[in-house]
Design a protein that fits this description.
Layout (H helix, E strand, L loop, with lengths): L7 E6 L5 E6 L2 E5 L4 E7 L3 H9 L1 E5 L6 H7 L9 H4 L4 E2 L8 E2 L4 E12 L3 E13 L12 H4 L2 E4 L2 E4 L18 H8 L17 H6 L23 H7 L2 H5 L8 H14 L6
Antiparallel strand pairs: 1-2, 1-5, 3-4, 4-9, 5-8, 6-7, 8-9, 10-11
The chain binds flavin mononucleotide.
Length: 276
Amino acid sequence: MLYPVPPVMVTCRDENGNDNVMTAAWAGTICSDPVMVSVSIRKERYSHDIIERTGEFVINLTTEQTAWAADYVGVRSGRDEDKFQAAHLHKSLSQNVKCSGIEESPVSLECRVEQVLRLGTHDMFIGRVLSTDVDPRYLDENGKFDLDRAGLVAYSHGEYWTLGRLLGTFGYSVRKRPQSKTAHRAKIAGGADASDRPAASGKRTADKRAAVPGAGKMADGAACPTTTGRRTANKAAFRSHKPEHKQDRKDSGRRTVDKAARKKRSRKEKGYGKHI
Ligand SMILES: Cc1cc2nc3c(=O)[nH]c(=O)nc-3n(C[C@H](O)[C@H](O)[C@H](O)COP(=O)(O)O)c2cc1C
């Protein structure tokens, strides 16, 4: 499957005013204008019926601070308990839909269902984004969303991760950087031109980020409030977290059926993969 993905928390409200929240990893941006997002939900979910009936939901981004809550609301059902209360989440008022957002989320997208695609195990709810509620604490001085401070979380193969090292910004592969005199001399002398390579490390300041052309663009180049990546995990830390079966893997060749089976067993032992 495609990983990593954002493990968002989807909120909805039934006709009696009861709010519910569930986690969804099968969610994404699917259109820039009008802004549309999708979330694929199994028919068995309590939230599925509510969203189907009311035609409304809110997508709330998950951060390091709310990762525990995101996991919790992804393994318990609103049929049995008030998950807002159980996960210590607070409700925020929405502008254009009846259901609440999550106060602790830095970004909440208020959505109205435009279409439902019956795909099989999951129904895909395509939602038009009616408003984007951003916690002003995470906007930088230029009004751009500051990922560094929001601490967004990615979900990959059953694991929750903070975002890693910044590799570049939109279009960096084709962008020319101004040459310094030293780099120019090195080039003439046949040396490597460091100025053509993207900066590899070091935490960006807000000023530098603002100066980067292309920052704050969506994948298709449209303007969006998000900016750049967060650096936390380093390679050593990643290696020490690697499951054993991955460390065992030989460098060459594709995986054999045995290895796939071993991975499946190991994932089963860890209880991964049953929830979505
Ligand atoms: C990380 C994570 C991602 C999940 N992604 C989805 C998803 O994309 N679609 C889905 O139907 N269920 C997904 N689930 C499972 C639901 O969140 C879970 O079944 C939840 O209990 C449903 O709540 P509800 O019955 O109150 O609606 C996910 C769970 C976790 C922990």
